[in-house]
Amino acid sequence: MTYKFYGWEHADVGPINDTYASIHNPRELYDLLSNIWSVSTCAPRLRSEWSEDNKTVGQCSITAFLAQEIFGGFVGGILRPGGNYHCFNIVGDCEFDLTSEQFGDEVLDYTNRLEQFREVHFSIEEKYVRYACLKAELLKAIRRE
């Protein structure tokens, strides 16, 4: 299968704990999340842009921190117009951005990145609630497999 998210070709890292042992790599996580991302997990400021055809919009930080929990590594952020950071994952030599499709044909520059911290992001209550919802739905999905 061909994916469209940044780094899909080399996204071959595995889970770091048994909770997520059935998710063998970020592509499999993307497949699962594609059935979970929703307007309720989308950032409130971007909900008017969310659609079934653009499920990754407004999902970057919660997705990147969930991927970090599964695969380790760290979350990077690139500054976007408007002052917000777009989050993605770096695990060893592997970089991937499960939500890059939200930008369409725009090619993002991942070189000028700053490490992002869950304590900072999750100090915003609505973001933590969205993360908890995404994680809970993912755990339900892997239990059904």
Record field, number of beta strands: 4
Strand order of the largest sheet: 3-2-1-4
The portion of residues assigned to helices is 25-40%
**Number of self-contained structural domains:** 1
Number of helices: 4
Shape: globular
pLDDT averaged residue by residue: 95
List low-confidence stretches.
Answer: none
Intertermini distance = 20 Å
Class computed from helices, strands and strand pairing: alpha+beta
Question: Strand content of the residues, in percent?
Answer: 5-15%
Helix and strand sequence = HHEEEEHH
Largest sheet, strands/sense/barrel: 4 strands, antiparallel
Q: Radius of gyration, rounded?
A: 14 Å
Describe the structure.
Helix content is 30%, strand content 13%. The chain has 145 residues and is α+β, with helices and mostly antiparallel strands. It has one domain (15-144). A four-stranded antiparallel β-sheet has the order 3-2-1-4. Strand 2 (85-91) and strand 3 form a beta hairpin. The protein is globular.
Q: Can I get a quick summary?
A:
With 145 residues, the chain is an alpha+beta fold. It has one domain (15-144). Helices cover 30% and strands 13% of the residues.
